Amino acid sequence: MFNKVQTKKVYMKIVEQIRDLIKEGKLKPGDKLPPEQVLAEKFGTSRPSVREALSALEILGITESRGGKGNFIRNNLNSPLYEQKFKELEEEESPFELLEARKAVETEIVGLTAKKATKEEIATIQGYLNKMKSTMSDIHKIMEFDREFHINIAKAAHNSLLFSMMTYLADLLKEKLWINLKEKSWSIPGRPQKYFEEHTEILNAIKNKDSKGARKRMYDHLAGVEKDLLRE
Question: What residue intervals traverse the membrane (predicted)?
Fold first, then answer.
């Protein structure tokens, strides 16, 4: 029933196949989709691509996730907003590719920041960390302050090219796929506190001018986020 896909944006090809199967009547409202690992094998893709596709399907209203029970077909293909949303998602970047890029870029950035950051810049970064702590129950606010925390670390690296790269990556954190996946991850009990503690360790390394330690903590943090997005 499923075909292997080969394309840059693999997750949208998976979405298209699910959509076509609904149109053909092979998938009906109420049907449960196979588990992610099974879908990955059927499509010949990675599990992250399947997770991105399921997120896109949920945004489009085609499926719904029933906590712990799986993903079920809703069939919202006749929604007047469907085509618009589909086109918007086609333009978005892969959240897991975004994390790969962030691991490469931000790890180097924070190493420079540990060497170059001024007291005033460290105070600004600390300010956003404090705001994160004070808004633990507000997912949207904590995501906003998390983004600013990372942007200001990049600003304190005093490298205009790296800062431009970081602002571009930070803009991608506003895309629907990323927000959908991140909201689910942040809503899991203990996750916000875990990320706050990891951010605190990153900032402490910067304060101590520990470039190597800062790089390791940033990489470990982003690698952990990547794993967490696949766990919930």
Answer: none
